[in-house]
Q: What sequence folds into this?
């Protein structure tokens, strides 16, 4: 029964992540979903909307950063079985994201807008490219480990947890954090930038810059010199070539 529950729990957590991921595309792009970054019902003033949105983003940043730290994980697995620790992290992150999408208060003052057809199409193309980079990058490392399924699979087969291999191929040979690069592209590429969208893009980019530094500190501690060399050779987010020597 414990194995059946673990498998069902991991599957449900992954399904909720998929819903959150797909909703995020519609939310940022302002299409399909009932509440989006510029089209959600609100009676708040611009100041109150900004405060609410900042609070929502802060909740996600704190949860995501704290639960990703090794020290927290070491304590957390005393309460949550180790094989579903990652699934629980994914579940809570996804639920908070869905909460952000649902309670977001739009700030629709236009900061900039592309009115011509060609620039708009180009920006939509870049928007789609960003999301595609995010998705493909997850499979270039270990998509199923990243979202908690591999850990449960190993548990179901009587095997202990195994850390994923350190991989530096494909996109990871261009930048160290291609998933985050994809998010930044997707969040900023829009034919119509509103004040609310700008707040969202700026805040998430700032969090990504801080979060990747925290993550790399943990990676250096876990992987050691190979990661130090990798960090020396490969840029973090923008694929500019590093000078040799």
A:
């Amino acid at each position: 029964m414990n194995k059946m529950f673990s498998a069902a729990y991991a599957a449900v957590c992954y399904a909720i992540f998929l819903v959150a991921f797909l909703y995020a595309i519609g939310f940022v792009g302002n299409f399909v979903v009932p509440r989006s970054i510029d089209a959600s019902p609100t009676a708040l003033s611009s100041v109150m909307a900004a405060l609410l949105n900042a609070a929502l983003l802060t909740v996600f940043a704190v949860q995501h950063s704290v639960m990703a730290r090794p020290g927290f994980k070491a304590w957390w697995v005393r309460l949550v079985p180790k094989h579903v620790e990652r699934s629980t992290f994914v579940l809570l992150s996804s639920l908070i994201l869905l909460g952000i999408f649902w309670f977001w208060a739009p700030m629709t003052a236009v900061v900039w807008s592309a009115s011509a057809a060609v620039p708009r199409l180009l920006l939509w193309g870049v928007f789609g490219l960003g999301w595609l980079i995010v998705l493909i990058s997850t499979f270039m490392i270990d998509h199923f480990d990243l979202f908690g399924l591999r850990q449960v699979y190993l548990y179901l087969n009587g095997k202990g947890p195994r850390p994923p291999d350190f991989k530096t191929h494909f996109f990871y040979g261009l930048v160290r954090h291609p998933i985050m690069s994809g998010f930044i592209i997707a969040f900023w590429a829009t034919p119509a930038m509103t004040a609310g969208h700008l707040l969202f893009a700026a805040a998430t980019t700032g969090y990504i810059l801080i979060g990747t530094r925290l993550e790399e500190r943990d990676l250096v501690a876990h992987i050691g010199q190979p990661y130090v060399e990798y960090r020396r050779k490969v840029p973090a987010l923008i694929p500019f070539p590093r000078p040799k020597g």
User: Anything to note?
Assistant: The chain has one domain: 2-233. The mean pLDDT is 95. The beta strands are 110-113, 192-194. The first strand starts at residue 110 and ends at 113.
